[in-house]
User: Fold this.
Amino acid sequence: MKPCLARAVGERVDMPLSVLLVEDSADDADLLLRSLCKGGYVPAWLRVETAEAMAIALAGQKWDVIIADYILPRFSGLAALQLLQQTGLDLPFIIVSGKVGEERAVEAMRAGAHDFLLKERLERLVPAIQRELHEVEVRREWARAEEDLRNAKSRAEEDRSRWESIFEAIGDGISVQDTDFRILYQNQAQKQLMGEHVGEYCYRAYQGRETVCDACHLVQAFRDGLIYKVESSSPADSGKPTVEITASPLRDQGGMIVGGIEVVRDISARKEAEEKMRYMSSHDILTGLYNRAYFEEEMARLERGRTQAVSIIMADMDGLKEVNDSRGHAAGDRMLQEAARIFKSVFRAEDMVARIGGDEFAVLLPDSDAAAVAIIIERIRTTLAAHNGSPKEVPLSLSFGAATAENGMTLVEVLKLADERMYRAKFARAG
Assistant:
């Protein structure tokens, strides 16, 4: 790996970072390390490709962060995540991979990955690491503070001031309640999120109830002696944040539950980032249509449950290369966006329209036979003619091919046949 460039006087100081890379490609590892260097880190790193090598690395050295590919020849990002979880180490775990579908990305996040990035968008890597390193520090502070709080009833008042000052320094909202659900303490962040209610019963303060709800997360924490975590969201137009609420029982030195701690975290930014990630994993950024990876996943899903006719339309934009060469790629991009707008206006909500290549589009039409497809293609041509009827920078021209699953054909075979027919139509027009 090439060393990071030295910084000039007055620029930010490079920060050391110990990185364990679970990656089979040396070139991809080099790209990751260059992104870290560019973001101000000086990484000390080790690359592993197997579970055995990763286990040895985790046992033999302290790491700040783990960055893993999603799929490796003899390993996987999810398997690496499970291995980390088995060690009990609290380390940021970030998966960086090529194009994957939304289901896999969501699966990784649910399994415990702290973030999931696409290799084509590595500009998010450094911010993700910075965020997760901060989260680790908050969790460690929280663990230390919780340990202090368990003995709070037997400590002097100055000790109470110390853990209160720790809670004030933590950005999350924190409150302490007794076993009757009376609020004994709120830090400033909790007051800003939920209002000031020290001395009140939580069920009255937050819900306007006269008795506590049996489904309350703190009731469950007291009953089971476990930590419970829930998300609470408000309507988008309410102006209220989406929060994550964690309820934890508070025990005395003898192990008896004497109260509970409630942590309220504003996760609006994280939820927004997750939504963006889901969108980016399944959509073409230029046109807003679905991308090839998502199209193939949807095609496989339809194949598994198919009982009715399914058709596929292929479309190729004529002359895009010539426009790119003569007028520039910005003009070509505008043509692609106009074509996408036409497709969106013509097809049904249940039809799946995707951009699967530079100048190629594909449409998956459930419950549509050959006759329906012919009508749809004619509708596209009519819409296209109306579009070209007014002055345009460059008129749009599209070649089409279509096929319908019949006689036991798989959808992969239907796609291939539609593609062949599209190219025959394109060559016929060119001739």
